[in-house]
Specification:
Length: 212
C-alpha cells in the first residue's frame, strides 16, 4: 500500500498534463475545519498558505474520542476506549495544479487509554503515550463558487487522502497492563492514528479562503 501511494504521487508529479506556470497559480490563504473529527466528538482547525507552487499548513485536532465500537483487533477485544487530547503538526508541499497538491507531513499525537464506558479522568486512566508519524497527504482544493462576485467565492471544500505511518512512540512499541476486563495481564500495542488502526486517513475539511 505504501509503495502504491508513492508511485501514484510520483506519477502525478511527472505527468506533463498537469503542467502549469507559476503565473497561473493564485496565492491563497485558507482557514478550514475538519468534518471527520466532529463525528468522534472532537474538533480540528487547519490553516493553509498557498504561494505560487508551494503549499504550507498547520493543523491541530483536539479531544478525539474513539469508543470501543471504533477500535479493532486487540484494543477492541480488551474492552478499551481511546481518547486523543491532541493530534498536531504541519505540512509542506507542492501544488500540481490549482486544485491538487501533495504534502509531506510530520505529526504528533497523544493517546490515552480507558475502559470503554468509564468516565475519562486521571483516576480511571490506564496509560497514556505519544506517537510521531511522518507521511504524505494528497489534498484537493475546491471552490464551488469561485466565479461568483460576492462573499460566496471564498467557500472552500478540501477532501484529502493521507498516509501517516507511525515511526516512533514513547512506549517502545507496546505496554503491559493488568486488565479489569479480562482479569489478565494484557499487552497494548501503540496505535496507528488512521482508520481501523491503519496509517490511512480520509477526511473532508470545509472553510474559507482569500487570495493575496
Amino acid at each position: 500500500m505504501k509503495k502504491t501511494f508513492l508511485i501514484i504521487a510520483a506519477s502525478i508529479l511527472c505527468n506533463s498534463s498537469f503542467a502549469q506556470t507559476d503565473k497561473t497559480f493564485e496565492n491563497r490563504v485558507a482557514l478550514l475545519f475538519g468534518t471527520n473529527q466532529l463525528m468522534v466528538d472532537g474538533f480540528n482547525i487547519e490553516g493553509n498558505i498557498f504561494f505560487k507552487r508551494l503549499a504550507f499548513d498547520y493543523s491541530h485536532g483536539v479531544s478525539l474520542n474513539l469508543d470501543n465500537n471504533l477500535l479493532s483487533g486487540a484494543a477492541k477485544d480488551q474492552g478499551l476506549a481511546v481518547h486523543l487530547p491532541y493530534t498536531t503538526g504541519f505540512g509542506v508541499g507542492y501544488r500540481i495544479n490549482e486544485w491538487l497538491n501533495l504534502r509531506a507531513e510530520p505529526k504528533w499525537h497523544k493517546f490515552e487509554l480507558y475502559y470503554d464506558g468509564e468516565t475519562q479522568n486521571s483516576t480511571n486512566q490506564i496509560a497514556s503515550y505519544r506517537t510521531f508519524t511522518l507521511g504524505l497527504g494528497a489534498y484537493v482544493t475546491w471552490l464551488p463558487f469561485k466565479n461568483k462576485e460576492n462573499l460566496l467565492r471564498g467557500i472552500t471544500i478540501a477532501p484529502s487522502l493521507r498516509y501517516w505511518p507511525k515511526v516512533s512512540d514513547t512506549i517502545d512499541g507496546s505496554l503491559d497492563y493488568d486488565s479489569q476486563i479480562t482479569g489478565q495481564t494484557e499487552t497494548h500495542d501503540a496505535l496507528e492514528v488512521g482508520l481501523a488502526n491503519t496509517p490511512w486517513i480520509v477526511n473532508v475539511s470545509i472553510g474559507y479562503s482569500l487570495t493575496f
